[in-house]
């Protein structure tokens, strides 16, 4: 710590060398005291930060346990990025804040939404999920807002929409970017004014719901192309949570695979011994475009094929077995499987088969399944 200590006297030359030594000692003592106080304050702040982090982690554990108890599956993940997601959930869950969850398909956006609901004051109230991509616009509008009798052909009775069903609870809008611009404008009013009208109705209804939304699309691009309203984006994105793709958190692949193996073996009544080393290497090297959902499906298929033995490489889905992994594994070292856009010659019946050219950009899973 740097500073200055000054002494003044109304008479000149009143201080001698002994006075100077006393002043230096006093300055040292004051400096030491201030340094100790600063260190104590820093230690207090650090202790409070640790305590806060521990409380958040305890909250995450509680939410995860409660979600599992309610039959929504176990929350598994050891990677730093997944733990960061859970800490964000713990921070925002107790509030009434609108949350926008982003991430690729299959990353677990609805699980995060259910965690948010479970940690909120609305935990005991309805959780209503709407997949905006599953219905065309007229049906989605009716599903969301409800309709009055005679509102359209076939509307023979009043229908209560999801907004009313979620009263005092949580409304989760999955794939919200699939809403048409017209429907987006109507839902914007719900967020702004907390009110809506049923399709074909004139009565203005008040609503009390917490809105959580999710998308796997690039919202910036959707806004730029006029497919998504910018004002609705800002209303939804009060607090954003991004879930990384599984390929970006490879530390979670094996814990997830082992959890799925345990759960599915039990539910399917087909116990498996475990996962072999070669299968583990392939699980770690595959890029998982379908994320956690694809991993679960792969383990389920492998359980059916392994007949109670170890899950081996040949039990993995054909698309995975035919493709060289994104990061080949040789002696524990990751190496590129394909270089310069060409594959190594295949061997058939002991002879080299003609080399097959692989595009530099790779081969899509969809094209492989069609072949």
Please characterize this protein's 3D structure.
This protein is of the alpha/beta class. The protein folds into three domains: 17-66; 72-239, Rossmann fold (3-Layer(aba) Sandwich), CATH 3.40.50; 247-315, Helicase, Ruva Protein, domain 3 (Orthogonal Bundle), CATH 1.10.8. The protein has helices at 17-69, 80-92, 109-118, 137-145, 162-165, 181-193, 219-224, 230-236, 253-268, 277-285, 291-306, 318-322, 365-370, and strands spanning 99-102, 127-131, 146-147, 159-160, 170-174, 195-196, 205-206, 210-215, 239-242, 274-275, 310-311, 328-330, 333-335, 347-348, 351-352. A five-stranded parallel β-sheet has the order 2-5-8-1-9. Strands 3-4 form a two-stranded antiparallel sheet. The chain has a two-stranded antiparallel sheet with strand order 6-7. It is flat, with a radius of gyration of 30 Å. The chain starts with 16 loop residues before the first helix and ends with a helix.
Percent of residues in helices comes to: 40-55%
Radius of gyration from the CA trace?
Answer: 30 Å
Major β-sheet annotation: 5 strands, parallel
What CATH architecture of the largest domain do you see?
3-Layer(aba) Sandwich
Strand order of the biggest β-sheet: 2-5-8-1-9
| Count of distinct structural domains | 3
Element-by-element helix/strand order:
HHEHEHEEHEHEEEHHEHEHHEHEEEEH
Strand runs, count:
15
Tally of contiguous helical segments: 13
Q: What's the CATH topology name of the largest domain? A: Rossmann fold
Q: Given the C-alpha coordinates, what overall shape results? A: flat
Low-confidence stretches: 324-371
The CATH homologous superfamily of the largest domain is named P-loop containing nucleotide triphosphate hydrolases
């Amino acid at each position: 710590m740097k500073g200055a200590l000054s002494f003044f006297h109304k008479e000149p030359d009143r201080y001698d060398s002994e006075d100077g030594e006393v002043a230096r000692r006093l300055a040292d003592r004051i400096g030491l005291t201030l340094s100790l106080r600063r260190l104590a304050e820093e230690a207090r702040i650090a202790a409070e930060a640790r305590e806060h982090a521990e409380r958040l982690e305890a909250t995450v554990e509680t939410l995860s346990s409660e979600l599992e108890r309610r039959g929504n599956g176990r929350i598994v993940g050891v990677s730093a990025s997944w733990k960061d997601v859970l800490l964000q959930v713990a921070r925002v869950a107790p509030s009434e804040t609108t949350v926008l969850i982003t991430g690729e398909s299959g990353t677990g956006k609805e699980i995060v939404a259910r965690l948010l609901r479970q940690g909120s004051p609305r935990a005991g109230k309805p959780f209503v999920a709407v997949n905006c991509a599953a219905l065309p616009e007229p049906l989605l509008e009716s599903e969301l807002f409800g309709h009055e009798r005679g509102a359209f052909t076939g509307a023979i009775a009043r229908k209560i929409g999801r907004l009313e069903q979620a009263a005092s609870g949580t409304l989760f809008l999955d794939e919200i970017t699939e809403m048409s611009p017209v429907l987006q404008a109507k839902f914007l009013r719900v967020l702004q004014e907390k009110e809506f009208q049923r399709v074909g109705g004139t009565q203005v209804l008040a609503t009390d719901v917490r809105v959580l939304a999710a998308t796997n699309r690039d919202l910036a691009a959707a806004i730029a192309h006029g497919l998504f309203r910018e004002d609705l984006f800002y209303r939804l994105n009060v607090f954003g949570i991004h879930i990384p793709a599984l390929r970006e958190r490879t530390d979670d692949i094996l814990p997830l695979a082992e959890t799925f193996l345990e759960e599915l073996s039990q539910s399917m009544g087909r116990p498996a011994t475990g996962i072999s080393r070669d299968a583990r290497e392939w699980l770690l090297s595959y890029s998982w475009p379908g994320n956690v959902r694809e991993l679960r499906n792969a383990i389920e298929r492998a359980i059916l094929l392994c007949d109670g033995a170890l899950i081996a490489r040949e039990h993995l889905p054909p698309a995975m077995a035919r493709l060289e992994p994104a990061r080949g594994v040789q002696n524990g070292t990751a190496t590129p499987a394909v270089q310069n856009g060409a594959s190594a010659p295949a061997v058939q019946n002991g002879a080299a088969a003609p080399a097959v050219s692989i595009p530099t950009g790779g081969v899509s899973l969809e094209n492989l399944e069609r072949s």
